[in-house]
Amino acid sequence: MLAELLVPWFDEHARDLPWRRPETTPWGVLVSEFMLQQTPVKRVEPIWLDWMRRWPTPSELAAAPQSDVLRAWGKLGYPRRALRLHAAASAIATGHGDIVPSDVDELLALPGVGAYTARAVAAFGYQRRAPVVDTNVRRVIARAVHGAGDAGPPRTTADLADAEALLPSDDLVAARFSAALMELGAVRCTVRNPGCEGCPVFGECAWQAHGRPEYTGPSRPVQRFAGTDRQVRGRLLDVLRDAPGPVPRTALDDAWSEPAQRDRCLFSLLTDGLVEHLPDGSFALPGERVPGH
Ligand code: SF4
Question: 195 CA to middle of ligand 1, Å?
Fold first, then answer.
């Protein structure tokens, strides 16, 4: 029933996002899904378009140096995603004939691809019937199906089963429905102030039927950014991305004034393989060398 209401709504109201256009390849879908994890659409759009121009196939990305990949990732944040995507591109190029797999288990075996991304690629890249569950989908299902105010903490198996139960049997319709469910959660059934008036599933929504009970589960952690290690790591990487090549230690010291936090963050970047310490004492993005060495 939800599908009958949501798919026509989606046909009419879906946002025109570049990775949703018919010419987008499964590779383009995979790249978009890596980028969209914890990053808003508006920030992803220009970077995704740039990546698709530069690296339209997995093998083209796989052939690029990691330093180029990290520079092109720009300020999307969580830059380990860029290296994992690079590793996934290599695995697709060498192990799958440069074609993104359509099978969920094969997708799950790729570096950096988890339960959500594997099913998103199967559904949006290959129009397969696969339950695609992100926070937006969980919230819509919690409200519309279970009558709860919000979804509470993730329960992967139960969440997948919930979404699976709603999927129409036809592959194409199921894939469209999955996209529609996500869209409803992103633009209308939002965390605060859901736009219930005019919602396509208003008449079927269990939360409405139950009198809109308040959410009483655990509260979600507030994500702060200023002063966190994440911010410091970002500042240090900015220095390396903006430089044409390796930089001296002093350039990194200037990026953050608190030495203990700065050292901790630099160490974690080295451990994550996002920065390299070169024999001459300078620091660089991975794969970057001092000219002449
Ligand atoms: S009616 Fe409101 S709570 Fe129910 S699905 Fe629509 S937006 Fe969400």
Answer: 7
Per residue in 154-191, pLDDT tens?
898 999 999 999 999 999 999 999 999 999 999 999 99
Report if pTM > 0.70.
Answer: yes
Q: How many CB atoms lie within 10 A of CB 66?
A: 18
Residues 156, 208 contacting (CB under 8 angstroms):
no
Ligand 1 centroid to Cα of residue 140, in Å, is 7
Domain extent, residue 251, equals: 229-284
Domain of 265, CATH number, reads 1.10.10
Query: Would residue 235 count as lying in a domain?
Result: yes
Which among 208, 210, 212, 214 is the best mutation to test ligand 1's pocket, defined by most ligand atoms within 8 Å of the CB? 208
Number of structural domains found in the chain: 1
Instruction: Give the position, in ligand 1's atom list, of the atom nearest the Cα of 212.
Output: 3
**What are the structure tokens assigned to 171, written together?**
């592959």
**Is 204 annotated as catalytic?**
no
